[in-house]
Every structure is written in structure tokens, then in C-alpha cells.
Amino acid sequence: MFRVNYRRAASHLLMCAALAGSLLIPHADAHGAAHRAPISFTPLDGGKPVLPDVLVTALVTLPDGTVYAGGRVMVKSTYAFANPPVVPAGSVWLVSRDRGAHWTRRVSTTSVAVVQQAASGTLPWTDHHAWPADFTANALASDPRHPATIYAAGCTGTDALCLRTAGQYRLLRSTDSGATWADAIVFHTKALLYTSLANLTTNIAKTPALDAALRTGPSGLPGQALDVAIDPSNSARLYACMSGIGVLRSDDGARTWRYSDMPQFGWENVQCDLLIDPRKPAVVYSVDRVNGRVYRSANAGKTWAQASDFGYTSNQHLYNPTLINGVLYITGYNGIYVSNDQGRHWRLVIPNPVSGAMAEGIHGNGGWIAAFSPAASTLATGVYGRRDGQPWRLLVDTDRFGTVSYSGSLDDQAMHGEGARRMWEDHVGRIVFTSARAGGLYRWGSGL
Hints:
With 448 residues, the chain is mainly β. The protein has one domain: Methylamine Dehydrogenase, Chain H (7 Propeller). The chain is 8% helix and 37% strand. It is built from five helices and 29 strands. The strands form eight sheets. Strands 1-29-28-27 form a four-stranded antiparallel β-sheet, with no helix packed on it. A four-stranded antiparallel β-sheet has the order 2-3-4-5, with no helix packed on it. A four-stranded antiparallel β-sheet has the order 6-7-8-9, with no helix packed on it. It is globular.
């Protein structure tokens, strides 16, 4: 694993608007779109966080304005010199019915500090045992045909990203908008370490390939679910990316699962992205964000092959695989890449605005929005935007909106270091959500 440690701005001597006006890097205009107005991007909610004390780790939006999110409640550290000054405590399930303006929350935790705060009235609290205590959501997916059915990929553990744990809960399923939850993937070994399929209780089909993957040692055990995706043509078919073993497939709404015919070696406890081709649902991509590898299955997960390791060879994390008119795009540190041969070869098609590192590129209506950290300390870390055929512009200096001095509303450095999600978009409402590991969820009105 590797990290990029670009210098952060100690102070910002220029106003956000001035930077946005000065940071214009020309690109070739293949579509003649230079006459269009620049992207608008404005803070909602008076520029204040709607969830100031929550580290949001997963979020999904629905067309009707419903937003589901999972995360951790952040409380002040008892250590005077802690950096950051807050630490994750209870796990929280969040629901909004008005595109994130207002939220209801359910907190579940074993943390004594959180229980004490709740009892004193300084922290909203709901006794909610169905959402597992200290469960960290890595990704959420909602069934488009049955919106009350939600899947939450994640794990239970004491660290916010489950990097040091192999907890009991991995993939959860709710059929009532998150009021109650049940295990969608069951995996329990009778001994401390895996010995054989006979000593395994699971709803994953016991096959020689699964046995071979599990025998690689503790690193081969599926300690957490990293991502979950629903087939757009068949709601009963799901894919779950698991640490240790790779991608599983279910054809019965997560009641049972099937592993690939051959072991998928090389999956560490790192973040993963799944992408199903809506035009050819049997084609599925899985991306190892931190190690920069792209995998592809052409037969609905029956077999997998590494399509490319260009992120690894070029020392880049990879983010957000996206299909646009059948063409595959992905975000790397150096900008946005395109592949015209289903992920085998990649070409940098939209470079960074200046020297720095990019993450979380989101394609909107006629352009891109991305998290970007310039190498120069005099330029701002934050959200940058680019209409097709126009140069990149700074949309918002997110360091100016942090709930604590440790980080802004979009901690770009944390995104790079952890390969973690920190930005999501409501395409219908044209709202972008940003979060940081020190807590605080912000909403931005987007022109894309």
C-alpha cells in the first residue's frame, strides 16, 4: 500500500473566488463547449454542516429525495494532544426524506463515553439494537425496484475503517428502510482460524475455490464487505466485494452466495469499487482502490481476470469507475483516465488542473467534479469542476468549512491515504455531499 503526502495549505491568502477565477488551465475543446457558463457550486444550509458530529462513511441517494447514510458518531478525545481531537464512537444509521436537509438517526454502540453523553442529553440517542453495535458502513445500495430494501457493506470494529478487524457483521440487509437489519452474508468458523469447509457455518456455497482462498491464512478470511452492487436488470442478483477472498454473487436477494470458479487471490483489507455494465449486465468490474488494480468478469462473476494494474505501476490510487455511453472512465491521482478496451489499457484524457493529486471524480451533466489537492501550498484543497471543453476551476475551498481545525469538510489527504469515500452526489437534486474523518457532512448546490 502507498500514500501520497502532498503539503496542505497552512493558510489561504487568497479568497475562494479569486482562486476560482485565477486557476484556469486550458484543455482542447473536442465538443465546442467553451461558450457555456462555468459550473456553479454553492454551500447550502448557510455553509454549516447538517451533521456536525458524524463521520459519514457511506451514503446513497434515491430519486424521490430520500438519502440513506451510515457512519460513526464523533466525540471529543480524552487525550489532550490527540490529532485529530475527536475519535469515532458509536455507529449511526441516518435517514433523510428531503435530500439531506434534515435527518433522523439511530445510534448503536458499546462505547461508555457515548452512552454517558446520551444520558446527559448532550447527544441524540435512540436505543437501536438491530443496527449492530460499532458497525462501520463502507458502502450502501438501494434496490431501485424496492427502495425500502437496502444493503449495507461494512464491518464491526473499533477503528473507523475496519482496517484492523475481522468482525462478525459484514453485509446487512433491511427491507424496511433501515428500521431493522439482518445478516445478508453469514460466515463463522468453529475454530479461531479456518481449518476446513466442514468447520465453517456460512450461506456461501462451499466449493474447492472458496476453500483454496480461505486456506491462504488470516488475510484470506472475509473480515468485511467492501462494496455491494445490485444488477440493474435483476434485483435478485447482487455482488459483494469481500476482503480476503474477492467478489461473491447472489441470485436470490442475498439469501445465498456463490464464489467464483477460481480463487481470487490478492484482495487485501482495502477499499473496493464494483461497477456493473448496464448495457451488458454480465460484465462486472471490481477495482482495488489502494493497490490500483482493475478486475473484470465477462460471465456475471463466474470467473475473474485482472484487466490492468496501471494504478499500481504508476503509483496511483484509483477511484470511481464510471461508464459513459459504454466507455469506461476512472479517476487516478493524475486525473481522469479512459479505456476503450474494457479496462485493459488506459489513457489520461483529462489531466489535473495543476500538479497535485485527484480523487473521487464524479461525472455530472456535461462535466466533472473532483476532489483535488494541489502540490503547491498556496493553492486550495477542495472541490474542482470542469465542464466539457472548459478548463478546471476551483469550486470551493473546503478547508474553510471544517468543524474542527484538524480538517475541512472534505479531507482530501485522508481520502488519498485511506482510499476512502468522502464525496457523493444526488444527480436528480444536483447536490454534492462532502465529509471528513473529523466529522461534519456538508451539502453543496451543484450546476452539473
